[in-house]
Amino acid sequence: MDYWNAFWVGGAICALVQILLEKTKLMPGRIMVLLVCTGAVISFFGWYEPFMEYAGAGASVPLLGYGNILMKGVREAVSQSGFIGLFQGGFKTGAVGCCAALVFGYLASLVFRPRMKG
Q: Which domain range does residue 28 map to?
């Protein structure tokens, strides 16, 4: 049942994003930022953890999960460092995901030799 919940929740998130892409004039970058911010807001109110327990990877893998991770890091850093934690927390927890995206993107460019379409 865990696989089924992850599949349908992740699929629903992707379907909603696709509808946003098709029916609005929002650019993909803005929709990605909207997803991260939505995940952070849901995490701020404490609703993301029960959602993630139910949906598993269907909730933690999309960009909503990245917003949750950023908010968790900010919350922990504020409790440890006070006001300066607002600026530290997101960077510390988000650094791994950003670094992995850069490294794997670079490796993919070495393997696949991208070319401009002519």
A: 2-112
**Tokens matching residue 61:** 């893998």
Residues in the chain: 118
Task: Please check whether residue 117 lies inside any domain of the structure.
Answer: no
How many distinct structural domains can be found in the chain?
Answer: 1
In a domain, 118, yes or no: no
Closest Cα to residue 93, out of 85, 84, 105, 104?
A: 85
* Element (DSSP H or E) covering residue 45: none
Query: Tens of pLDDT along 6-32?
Result: 999 999 999 999 999 999 999 988 999
With the CA atoms of 83, 92, 72 and 101 taken in that order, what torsion angle do they form, in degrees rounded to the nearest 10? 140
pLDDT at 42 over 90: yes
In a domain, 78, yes or no: yes
Q: Of the candidates 14, 61, 21, 66, which has an alpha carbon nearest to the alpha carbon of residue 41?
A: 66
Q: Are 73 and 94 in contact (CB under 8 A)?
A: yes
CB atoms within 10 A of CB 42: 19
- Whether residue 113 is predicted with pLDDT greater than 80 in this model: the reply is no
